[in-house]
From TrEMBL:
It catalyses: hydrogencarbonate + H(+) = CO2 + H2O. The keyword Magnesium does not apply. Its EC number is 4.2.1.1. This is carbonic anhydrase. The keyword NAD does not apply. Keywords: Metal-binding, Zinc. SMART domains: Pro_CA. It is an enzyme of class 4 (lyase). It comes from the Bacteria. It comes from Saccharibacillus kuerlensis. Its cofactor is Zn(2+). Belongs to the beta-class carbonic anhydrase family.
Length: 190
């Protein structure tokens, strides 16, 4: 059986047994926060539990390394929508120790693209069109730098409403221990 068949079979039973009842909530975050975190699979259930977030408490956005690569890309747009339309009042960027973005190598990724059938012609065309894949796939020096990059991009964004605290944290993907590396309240007061 394929993964999609397994998912659909499970979903049919999930709906028929009304297991969704415990997840019903409104569209506005009860704790009025938007959390930007990494897509690492270890954080799927660990991060909300470690932060005491239940379904409906926060808007949770995920991207590789919790890194915002463009000030006008979809992640930043989602942060702004959460703040302007969905009643979020704070932003928390949560990176994690042992993040793959800290060891990401653009040349290695492009080699894997070639191995999986992406032609030199496509890569060359993108290069000539101004798409700098080496920069686009560039990792971060370390996890703290990645979090601070996103904190600074959000906090200094020209469309960011004044007075919104933007915090930065790291989580241990084994224990769930959180470390505050940038206090958004302090930042607003300075």
């Amino acid at each position: 059986m394929s993964q999609i068949t397994d998912i659909l079979n499970h979903n049919k039973a999930f709906v028929e047994n009304e297991e969704y009842q415990s997840f019903i909530s409104g569209k506005f975050p009860d704790k009025k926060v938007v959390v930007l975190t990494c897509m690492d699979t270890r954080l799927t259930e660990l991060l909300p539990r470690a932060m005491n977030l239940r379904n409906g408490d926060a808007k949770i956005l995920k991207t590789a390394g919790a890194v915002i690569s463009s000030p006008f890309g979809s992640i930043m747009r989602s942060v702004l929508v959460a703040l302007y339309e969905l009643q979020a009042e704070e932003v928390i960027v949560v990176g994690h120790h042992e993040c793959g973005m800290a060891s990401l190598n653009a040349d290695r990724i492009m080699g894997k693209m070639r191995d999986r059938g992406i032609s030199e012609e496509v890569l060359s065309t993108l290069d000539h069109a101004g798409v700098q894949l080496g920069q686009w796939f560039k990792g971060v020096e370390n996890e703290t730098e990645g979090v601070m990059h996103s904190v600074n991009m959000i906090a200094n964004h020209p469309l960011m409403p004044p007075g919104v605290p933007v915090h930065g944290m790291l989580i241990d993907p084994k224990t769930g221990a959180l470390e505050l590396i940038s206090d958004g309240y302090e930042r607003l007061n300075n």
